[in-house]
Structures are given as C-alpha cells and as structure tokens.
Amino acid sequence: MTELEPLLNRIEQLTPYFGRAQDDLLALATRGRNRDYKGVLQNARLVLEMLLRSLVTTELKQTPGKAMLDELIARFRQQAHAGLVPTHILAHMGTVQAWGNLSSHDHAGDLHDAGVKVDLQEAVTSLNSLVAILTWYKERYVQESALAPVTEAPVTTVPVVRPPGGRRMALVGGAALVALASGLGVLAYRSDTGPTSSAPSLRDRVDALYATNAEPPPPADCQETDPQGLVMLLELGSKLSDRVPEKDRAREANAALPALRARGPHWGPEGWFYVARASLLAGNPDAEAMNKALLCTNFAAAENLAGRVGVATQNLQEAVVRLTRAAELDARFWKPRYNLGLIYLQLPRVDKAVLWLQRAAESAPQIAEIHFRLGEAYKARAAETSGQGQDAAADQELARAAFCRAKDLGHPDAAALCTTP
To answer: What InterPro entries is this protein classified in (predicted)?
Structure first.
C-alpha cells in the first residue's frame, strides 16, 4: 500500500477537474485502499474511456457513439490525428487499456479453474499511467481559474493544558481539537424512526455515516438531495470518520478537501458541514464553511463542530455557546456534553465539569472515556473541598465508582484508580 498511497492521493487532488469521471475516480481510490486491485484497474479503464470519448467529441468533432475503448484509442493512433495526443501519453493509455481489459474479462475456462489474479504491482503500474494521463489532460484542457480549490486560511494552535491530577489532556492534532471529541465513535447515534429497507438509498447510507460518528444527521430541510452530492459525501465521508486512526486523520482530510471544495457552489449546509469538518481535521479551520453549515439553525452536529472550531481558534466563549446549543438541540447527542465537561475541567471549573460529564454519561453510559473523565472531575472537586471532610469523602467515593465503571468498560488507565480509599 505504501507504493499505492501517493498515487491515490494525487488522483484525489486531480478528481475535481474531471466532470462525470469524478465518481469513478473516487471509487477507484476507495477500492485501492480496500485492496480491491481488480476494481482499481476496472475504474481506471472506465475513466480513460470517458476522457477519450470527450476528446473524440471536442478534438475530432465526431460522435463517439457506442465505440469501446480499443476503438477510441485506435482513432488517435491514426496518422490523420497524429499529435493530438502525445506519443508517450498514448503509451500510457495502452497500459491502462491492457490492465483494464485483463481485469474486466474472465479468461478462465471451467468454473473451477483459477481466475485472473490482480495484485498491488499491477495496480501501481496502471495508476502510474493514469496519473500521467490525468495530469496531461488537466494541463491542456482544464481552465484552472474556474475550478481551482479555495486557499486555506492559517490556523492558530492551542497549547496542551494539564488537568487536575496531572494527567495529560491532549488536544488532537494541529487543529487543537478537544480531547477525543472527534475520536470516540464507539456508540453510534441511533434514530428512533430510521429506515428499515433492505436496499438503503444514498440518503440512508449518508445518514449511516452520522451514526458511525455518533452524531445526529441534519434536519430534513438542510439535507443534500442531489445524487452527485450524496455520492461525494458517501465516498469522502469515510475519510472524515471517527473510525480513521488519529495519526491518519490530517492526511485523509487533506485528501478529501479538494473535491469537497470544488463542489462548493452546489453545496447546502450539509455539504459545507463536511468541508468545515475536513478543514478542521486537516489543521486549518475554514470559518466561511463553518458559517455556511450553521445557516441550518437546528443542525446539532454543526453546532458541536463549531464548538470544536472555537477551541481550535482559542475562542472558548464561542465554543461554550455552540456546544451548549448542540446539547440543547438533541438530548441523545453526548459529544457536546462531553466536550463541555473537558473544557470546564481544563479551566478549571470543576462543578460545571462534573455537571456536563454526568449528563454525557447519562446519554452514553457505555463509553469508558466519559466515566474516566467524570472520575477526574470528582477527584478535582474533592481536592477543592478538602477542608469539608464529608463532602470531600463523598466526591472521593464518587470518583472511585466512576473509575471502576471506566475499568469495567475497558479503559486502560482506570484499573489503578479503581481502589478502595
């Protein structure tokens, strides 16, 4: 995969410039990361066929009709059309064609005979040629001014704060996100009235991405309805998922941003929410995208995201307002409650930290990290009231119970704290 990843990243950067071929380019990248190399070669072949059909239409002023890839390439190899496609690009087209044909057809005989096996090296060979073709096509035919992605704004980072008790409360990545606010996808957000169809629609599948991230989807009047937009959210949303390892989030978000931004004029609040999310994960919060997402006034996930942007830009007052709003909009949405608890634990304002973390635990009782942080908040409050023996003892016992609950749920640091005073 190390050989393939730079090629997939380059293809994703080029994707916004290729019209109806975007869907196959996005599918190609997804298949590559899933090690579906046969699918990679098939999508590469389809993309090349689309490019050649466009060239036949625009350069040869002909109607491509039902011509297949082999015939389309042959037209540009004819002496009459020499020079329209450079010789080295025609060679690359032949490579994509050959590997695409191999992966698209069954060359075996009996059903029990081994079929065609496609490995990483074949995918790398084909994609090296596809990148060369796409780069040439973009440089020659695409108007940069019309499609170039928007320049990202600089980011201000927030220093790491140590909470009471000395345990490091990390802020995730260069964008300084609240600890684990984007990383706990253990408990899926579930709707009481979700669809039950055995063949989910594009909309259902996009809503499932929100469930993966334990976030409520936007209200119906703010949702994307255009199929092309939904396909893009579906393809790129996985790059912005809480399931992506923390070390890979900035890279994956940067890979998704160009295509998301290129579609900007067609996005409603939901699309802009994804742009804002990607920019934050990439380390460069996009205030304009965030504001456009917030035009949907009852979009709890957008309010929570805006709270995280407030932390990233050191505007804690704005963060608290947005997170409180998110918590008010949906009683089942635990993330803003958890985030507020962490903010108040860092300030420190431990009474409020306890309050919000208790509410988070009520909303998501199966998440170990919430109980662990609640134990820290109780412990901090016990330290503040150490002169009031009874209150301090009660908080110590509450802290121990919270740590024991975190231990039972699998928190790696809780066992040592789940002890009898």
So the answer is: TPR-like_helical_dom_sf (IPR011990)
